[in-house]
Amino acid sequence: MEKIITVTKTATKQVEPNKVRITVTARGEAGSYAQAVKIANEKCDKAKTALYTGGVNIRGGGITVGAVYDGAKVKGYRASRTLWIVLPREGEAVNKTTDELGKLDSDWRVSFEYAGNDKAELLAEAVKAAREDAEVIASAAGVKLGALVKTEYADGEHASPVMFKAARFGGDDVSPELITLSQTVVCGFEIE
Q1: I want to staple 125 with a disulfide (CB 3.0 to 4.6 A). Which of 11, 24, 131, 176 is the partner?
Q2: What is the pLDDT of residues 119-158, one digit of tens each?
């Protein structure tokens, strides 16, 4: 039988967003499949022009087309394409891009993200906190804590984008909420 104290710890950190993701969905609806695709593609081309800020890669998916029904009968088709770019939060590129997008007949949204290299710091903090808790448990049990002999970790926790509020269009500056980063580890410490 293994003599191990196992502790799960999560380290978190709040950070200011430093990236802005602008996502555009261009839609077309028409009586024929081909016409719906054509309308979506034309709107997509206009959105590409609005998104182009020089040197920034425009990303996008394929086209999605679905039937539009009137009861059980197909009355037409709806096509949609999604594009996005990620820009630095600072500077005028975001304002210029959203101004251009405001002139289009496409849906768009802005969200804030964080791109940083905080993973190692958070993991070290979580392991340290796990050891501290394991030492308290070992002391309470009257045993001596040994080396870290087992860990479990899955790289899957990242910062979630925070939605942009449209206050900018009323002339107010927008200050996004902080983003919480987190990393979780499960540590098993040997009991000596």
Answers
A1: 11
A2: 899 999 999 999 999 999 999 999 999 999 999 987 754 5
